[in-house]
Design goal:
Elements: H1 2-16, H2 28-38, H3 43-56, H4 60-64, H5 68-74, H6 81-99, H7 112-119, H8 127-137, H9 147-156, H10 164-171, H11 180-193
This protein binds iron/sulfur cluster.
Iron/sulfur cluster (SF4) binds next to helix 9.
């Protein structure tokens, strides 16, 4: 599988280039909260919700003192307000109770497995969110698996799994060094712009020659929106 991952990565880079990364990685707490907000919405809406919440308060400790419903008001542009505010509130309250402040810096010295174990203890925080903290904030060579990554890799035939969590586990066993960020980020872009859930634009796809998907759509699309804004590299 390693060689196939490398081949997919190169084909994606030919199409989209190497995605940029900020010099300073996002803070793990910021990243965690932004990832919770990003579920089932686009990056622009979740970025706005994140900014609404963060710009009102000096620290996450202050946000922790808000009620769940007050948090919900700030994040409504991201949708699923009740569910997301509950996950944020329960994470912040737990941190305050257990550690007296809100920081995930202690995770920097932990193994990937330990980081996943620590973060998935919280309600509303799954393996995908933990994977994003690992990749974007802790700069580990880990590829998080959301619905885009899950769909594309199963279509291409890199692996056959029945859930994003199972894809995450298989994919990240022995992932080729140093390419997780470009592989992940370019797959997200491919999923948004080309390999869409119901009607992929296969004629525009850099993976067409190696893709095993049986229902390829070989009709030329009328137009194609470019969507290169990546929330999780822009969280601050
Ligand atoms: S060829 Fe079509 S189905 Fe296969 S990855 Fe590309 S867009 Fe998706």
């Amino acid at each position: 599988m390693q060689n196939q991952i490398k081949q997919i990565n190169l084909l994606l880079i030919e199409k989209f280039n190497i995605p940029p990364r900020p010099e300073i990685p996002p803070d793990p707490v910021d990243l965690l909260i932004a990832t919770i907000l990003s579920q089932n919405t686009n990056d622009k809406n979740s970025y706005r919700a994140f900014q609404n919440l963060k710009s009102e308060y000096k620290s996450w400790e202050e946000v922790a003192r808000l009620s769940r419903s007050a948090i919900e008001k700030y994040i409504k542009t991201a949708g699923l307000g009740k569910q997301k505010s509950k996950a944020i509130k329960s994470f912040l309250s737990f941190m305050m109770e257990q550690k007296g402040s809100i920081s995930l810096d202690y995770l920097k010295k932990e193994s990937n497995e330990k980081v996943i174990e620590e973060l998935t203890r919280f309600n509303g925080i799954g393996v995908k969110t933990a994977g994003c903290v690992l990749l974007f904030s802790l700069r580990r060579n880990i590829c998080p698996v959301d619905t885009h990554v899950y769909r594309i890799l199963n279509r291409v035939g890199l692996l056959k799994t029945t859930s994003p969590a199972k894809t995450f586990e298989k994919l990240n066993t022995n992932f080729p060094e140093n390419i997780a960020h470009s592989f992940h980020t370019n797959l997200i872009r491919l999923g948004r712009e080309i390999c869409k859930p119901s009607k992929p634009h296969c004629l525009q796809c850099p993976l067409l020659e190696i893709c095993n998907y049986e229902n390829k759509n070989l009709i030329k699309p009328k137009s194609n929106k470019i969507n290169s804004f990546m929330l999780l590299d822009n969280v601050k």
